[in-house]
Every structure is written in C-alpha cells, then in structure tokens.
Amino acid sequence: MYGMINEQAIVKVDRLTKRIGSKTLVENISFEVKKGEVVGLLGPNGAGKTTLMRMMVGMIRMTEGEVWIDGQSVKQQFEKTAAKIGAVIETPEFYPFLSGYENLTYFGRMNGNVTEERIDEVVQLLGMGQVIDRKVKAYSLGMRQRLGIAQALIHNPDVLILDEPTNGLDPSGIHEMRMYIKKIAHEQGKAVLVSSHLLSEVELMCDRVIIIQHGEYVATQNIQSDKKEETEKIHIRVDDANKAAEVLEYDVLVKGNELIINVKDEEIPNVLRTLIEKNIQVYRVYEERKTLEEQFLELTGGKDIV
C-alpha cells in the first residue's frame, strides 16, 4: 500500500512564523510532506493548525519563513505553486441550485484546461457517481465534503491540504472519508496534509503525525513504524501467576492472574514455551501499547485536543 511514497519531499515548510501585532500565532515551524503519504497535523484548539495551512496556500501572509512546493517558493512563485496545490481550508461554497457536476464544470473552467474526462475521473475516485447529477442543496454534509475535495482535485494537483475533512460527519461518513483520503495518497501518489481533532481517526488515516502546541512544533510520530517497531509491555494471563513468575528469567510484575513483562517480540515464543513446559496454562497474551491519544497528551503536557 505504501509503495508510492516518494522519499523526496514535495512540500517543505521552513521556519514558518505568523505574528499579528505582538501576538505570535505560529512560530518557527518546519516539516516536510512526501508524495504518496498522508500526514496529520494535530494540536489543541488555538494551536495554529488552520493558520499554518492558510499560510501554506497563500491565503494569509507569512511573517517569516517559507513554504516550498516542488522546489518553488509560495512567496515568490505563487501562481506556479497554486497550480500544484488543492485545498479545502474552510467550508467549501457551492452553487446550491446547480448539480455537483455543474459546480465542478464551473470551477474547472475557472482553473482552465480541466477536461470532462478529468472531472469524470475525480467523480469516480471519490465515489460520487450516483449523486453527482443531483442539486447540491440536496447533498448531505458528507457529500458536500467530498464535493469540496473533488473541487480541490480537478486541476490534478500534486499536493492536497485538508482542514478538518471529517468534521461533523457520522461514523459511516468518517470511515468513507478516511478511505478516500488514503486512496488519494497511496494510489494516486498525492502528498496529503490533514488536520483533525479526531485522534483515533488520524491514527487510522495517517502515515505520520505532526504535533504542534501554542503555535510551535512539538514532535513527529511515525505511526506505521511505531506500530511495527515499538516494544511495549506484554500481558500474559495464566492459571497460576505466582508460579509462572518464578519460572521465568525476567523481571515480572504479577497482577491478579496476569504477568506483565517487558520483552522483545522475538523473545515471546520462548517465554510461552517455558510456561507450557512447566505445565502452566496460558489463556491470553496481548501487548500494551500507548495510543496516539496517550502519546499526544504526554507530548503536550496533558492538554486535550479539544
């Protein structure tokens, strides 16, 4: 699934800063986004996520720093970089009495050189074939969100920037949006930057997560490698925990009928083999791993996302 990730970053945010008077909204933030990956942007309310995205697409001026899109400066080469970016930063606006297809055709003309074939391709990519000819006023919130992404994609940009794309959606709509965003990155090869307050959803959607707080960079979490490489505590439920603790050559914490032990993945089979050889019944084995939410709260000093 991740074969299309390009190691060469197409988006480079370099020491980006935004000040209004004496107030600093974003300060000295740097990160990169590669083609073929979904990067999440997380932070408590007021952390500067939307301000950061607005600077990246040229909606507001940068006080300091620079954003590079495929080696070109957003400050100095705005028109060229704008052609390579698709974005949904605020609630997308449409003509409610036109159909979804007519709206896309209109916005395609504004972009120039957008063919009917390209519009049809985007409609198919986002699974909108059954509703695209309906008037937008009849669309659900989820369909409006998808139409907004379709509008951002019709000029075939290399970079897609989405501010809270799952906001207000029901669980089914969130699941569908997640699948489409991953498809856009992993199958279409786009670089996707997504902000969200739904930590569990970001964990399922993104390849990496950038955490900011008070307008400053805090950390980057590589979700896929964390899941594969982090060694956490292993819980083993047995019939006689005290006896099991005695036969194992590890530091073991006994909690009820469970053993809690720190081991590497490759050591787990030997641990279980030892218990079975000593006639100890093993009922359950599971790994204790910190969720993205727990990591987020640690990194931001316990401040919640909302």
Write the layout of secondary structure elements.
Layout: E1 9-20, E2 23-34, E3 38-42, H1 49-56, E4 64-69, E5 72-73, H2 78-82, E6 85-88, H3 100-111, H4 116-125, H5 141-153, E7 159-163, H6 171-186, E8 191-195, H7 199-205, E9 208-213, E10 216-222, H8 223-229, E11 233-238, H9 241-247, E12 252-255, E13 258-262, H10 268-277, E14 282-288, H11 292-299
Determine Rg (CA atoms, Å): 24 Å
- Which CATH top level class of the largest domain fits? Alpha Beta
User: Which class do the helix and strand fractions yield?
Assistant: alpha/beta
Query: Helical stretch count?
Result: 11
End-to-end Cα distance, whole Å, is 31 Å
Subunit organisation of the chains? single chain
CATH architecture of the largest domain: 3-Layer(aba) Sandwich
CATH homology superfamily name of the largest domain? P-loop containing nucleotide triphosphate hydrolases
Give average pLDDT, whole number: 87
Number of strands: 14
Main-sheet strand order equals: 6-7-8-3-9-10
Question: Any overview of this molecule?
Answer:
It is a single chain. 34% of the residues lie in helices and 28% in strands. The longest helix is centred in the middle third of the chain and has 16 residues, at 171-186. With 306 residues, it is of the alpha/beta class. It has two domains: 9-222, Rossmann fold (3-Layer(aba) Sandwich), CATH 3.40.50; 232-287, 2-Layer Sandwich (Alpha-Beta Plaits), CATH 3.30.70. The two termini are 31 Å apart. The chain has eleven helices and 14 strands. The protein has helices spanning 49-56, 78-82, 100-111, 116-125, 141-153, 171-186, 199-205, 223-229, 241-247, 268-277, 292-299; strands at 9-20, 23-34, 38-42, 64-69, 72-73, 85-88, 159-163, 191-195, 208-213, 216-222, 233-238, 252-255, 258-262, 282-288.
